[in-house]
Write a structure and sequence with these properties.
six-stranded antiparallel beta sheet, two-stranded antiparallel ribbon
């Protein structure tokens, strides 16, 4: 089985669903794509890059897929989930508000560098809002070396004040919480 680490974010409602509800729905969908999924807590964070927008709600998901799962096929599956919950990349401002954003942070030990997909995610190490929830769920991975790497990245960011303003809100939304540790 291949370990998959995803970053989730939302700061814009869609079809009457608030960002926390959108994350919950995304979690349900992701639980069908991956096995033995674990979700981090949800964190409220200030927007980066384009700062004049609502705060984001961020989380991470760690799960496993079969060794023969293709990263690009998996990317298309999560893009379909994003679209289902209101994401339209053709109409959004880069780094602007979005109803749902799901990024592949890690996909097994693969290294991918294409215009469509970069793994490990190219900005993961500069984003405390990704690192904090990722470190939280990476404890469920047997790969302590990977977790330690991101703990060190987070410590470096924290030493420069790069993790300020990130507030832990709660365990992952209740609609998904009961399924987080089930084998599928």
């Amino acid at each position: 089985m291949k370990r998959v680490l995803l970053g989730l974010g939302s700061n814009k409602s869609f079809n009457g669903l608030a960002p926390m509800e959108l994350l919950s729905h995304a979690g349900e969908e992701l639980s069908r794509l991956m096995k033995d999924v674990h979700f981090s807590s949800v964190y409220r964070t200030k927007a980066m890059y384009v700062e004049d927008q609502e705060d984001f709600y961020n989380a991470a998901a760690l799960g496993w897929v079969s060794d023969d799962e293709d990263a690009f096929d998996f990317l298309h599956k999560i893009n379909e989930i994003e679209a289902k919950y209101g994401r339209d990349r053709s109409r959004e401002v880069r780094f602007g508000p979005r109803s749902l954003d799901i990024d592949i942070e890690l996909f097994g030990d693969e290294r991918i560098e294409t215009p469509e997909l970069q793994v490990p995610h190219i900005r993961m190490e500069e984003r405390a809002f990704v690192l904090i929830p990722s470190v939280e769920v990476l404890k469920y991975s047997a790969d302590e070396i990977v977790r330690e790497k991101y703990i060190n990245c987070l410590a470096a960011l924290e030493s420069k004040g790069g993790a300020e303003g990130i507030i832990k809100l709660q365990a992952f939304p209740k609609a998904v919480e009961n399924g987080t540790d089930r084998k599928r």
